[in-house]
Design goal:
The protein is an all-alpha fold and 440 residues long. The longest helix has 34 residues. It is globular, with a radius of gyration of 24 Å. It starts with 26 loop residues before the first helix and ends with a helix. The mean pLDDT is 92.
């Protein structure tokens, strides 16, 4: 056998592994990518920008409310600021954040697929988001809108002199982003699961996004049509919502809340999926009652379409309709309660590790519980007629949205941060930030 002298052997440097972060560094390679991971990063950057802007508007509101006088903002500017805060946070942060970022990145990995079913449509959904967001930002920079994020008629169709049409068009275009994302998730989960990945082996994160996608697909077209009708009345003066020309303003409320209450679950359900993963992982236990949590996600999606009338108890609707909506509001709380009880049971006798994502998960349970219980209270007609349009409603909504969705989003982002970026964060500073988020 011939002896080989190691000194005479040429060293062959191994080729660096190519991953989604290193597979092309040009702007073109990012803007034309069809990789679900890169698209998730594009969403992360754009959604974070809108989150920061919405936070600026929130800070302006809080600074103005430090004193009774209009020290910082006069009344017209204040109306514009809180309207723009709501529009940006609801339509451009809360709704897309977890599905478009964490869902896009993780669902194919979790079910054993190479990518989502329609990669080009996935990229198109991001472009719809950017176009809709850019148009909305342009309108806000030109003077904004002062109707409130709900665009209640007839003020929005007749009396407001702000940029209602431009903002409405931006939200309309952005709606296609949600529709395409929901369609992509449903088809992917149905048709691209790895062999052996049956429905009851799916991670609860995937179940939550499946339920969310159903709401996106069925509910978003309703708000899109509503915005078109609003624009048509504003332009053509055809009586649809304005009673002065033969319209019905209550019709707008029915159409708006038929989407916007299920939209609450578009925001919260993905967060619940994140929390299910965090609780199980950091308590070192299999999730308690997997099937119940999975089916509760579907139940929330279904019942969420049946309770819109509880936003309209003071609108003059029939007392019998009010009773039905009040009962259904109590019923829709049951699936959420099932999740909280099962998370608590999972924690019981678990080997709990209080890492940063787990802190966010525990904060979610406490804060969302407050939001949920105040929601049940608001389902009682006799109480709600007195609390409508008070800060009790604002507090309830923000306990669910910030205490629920935002906290879950931050927990999921910390949990999968190293998977997404290949880098670690400081555990000490992340815990400090988690405590600040909880306290503030």
């Amino acid at each position: 056998m011939q002896n080989v002298d190691a000194a005479n052997v040429d060293y062959i440097e191994p080729k660096p592994k190519v991953n989604y972060l290193t597979n092309g560094f040009t702007l073109r390679s990012w803007l034309l990518t069809k990789d679900h991971k890169r698209i998730a990063i594009l969403y992360l950057l754009s959604v974070s920008a809108f989150f920061a802007l919405g936070g600026v508007y929130a800070s302006l509101i809080r600074l103005e409310l430090l004193t009774p006088q209009s020290d910082l903002l006069e009344s017209g500017s204040y109306n514009r600021v809180f309207t723009q805060h709501g529009i940006i946070m609801v339509f451009f942060f809360l709704i897309p954040s977890i599905p478009a970022i964490l869902g896009n990145f993780l669902i194919p990995i979790m079910i054993g697929a190479k990518d989502l079913a329609f990669p080009k449509i996935n990229l198109l959904s991001w472009y719809f988001y950017i176009i809709g967001g850019s148009l909305t930002l342009w309108a806000l920079m030109q003077g904004g809108v002062d109707t409130g994020w709900t665009f209640y008629t007839p003020y929005s169709t007749t009396f407001s002199n702000s940029y209602v049409m431009a903002v409405g068009l931006g939200i309309f275009i952005n709606g296609f982003s949600s529709i395409l994302t929901g369609l992509n998730f449903i088809v992917t989960i149905h048709t691209m699961r790895a062999p052996g990945m049956t429905w009851f082996r799916l991670p609860l994160f995937v179940w939550a996004h499946y339920a969310t996608s159903l709401v996106m697909l069925l509910g978003t077209p309703v708000i899109a049509i509503t915005i078109l009708l609003l624009a048509f009345e504003r332009l053509a003066r055809v009586g649809i919502f304005d009673p002065a020309i033969g319209g019905d303003p209550i019709l707008f409320q029915h159409l708006f809340w038929f989407y916007s209450h299920p939209a609450v679950y578009i925001m919260v359900l993905p967060g619940m999926g994140v929390v299910s993963e965090l609780i199980s992982n950091f308590s070192r236990k299999k999730i308690f009652g997997y099937e119940f949590i999975a089916f509760s996600s579907i139940a929330i999606a279904v019942f969420g379409f049946l309770v819109w009338g509880h936003h309209m108890f003071v609108s003059g609707q029939s007392i019998y309709a009010g009773l039905v909506f009040s009962f259904l509001t109590m019923v829709v709380a049951v699936p959420s309660a099932i999740k909280i009880f099962n998370w608590a049971a999972t924690l019981y006798k678990g080997q709990i590790s209080y890492d940063t994502p787990m802190l966010y998960a525990l904060f979610f349970i406490g804060l969302f519980l407050i939001g949920g219980l105040t929601g049940v209270a608001l389902g009682a007609i006799g109480l709600t007629v007195h609390l409508t349009d008070t800060y009790f409603i604002v507090a309830h909504f923000h306990y669910v949205m910030v205490g629920g969705q935002v906290v879950a989003y931050l927990g999921g982002l910390h949990y999968w941060w190293s998977k997404i970026t290949g880098k670690l964060y400081s555990e000490f500073w992340s815990k400090i930030s988690a405590m600040l988020v909880f306290v503030i």
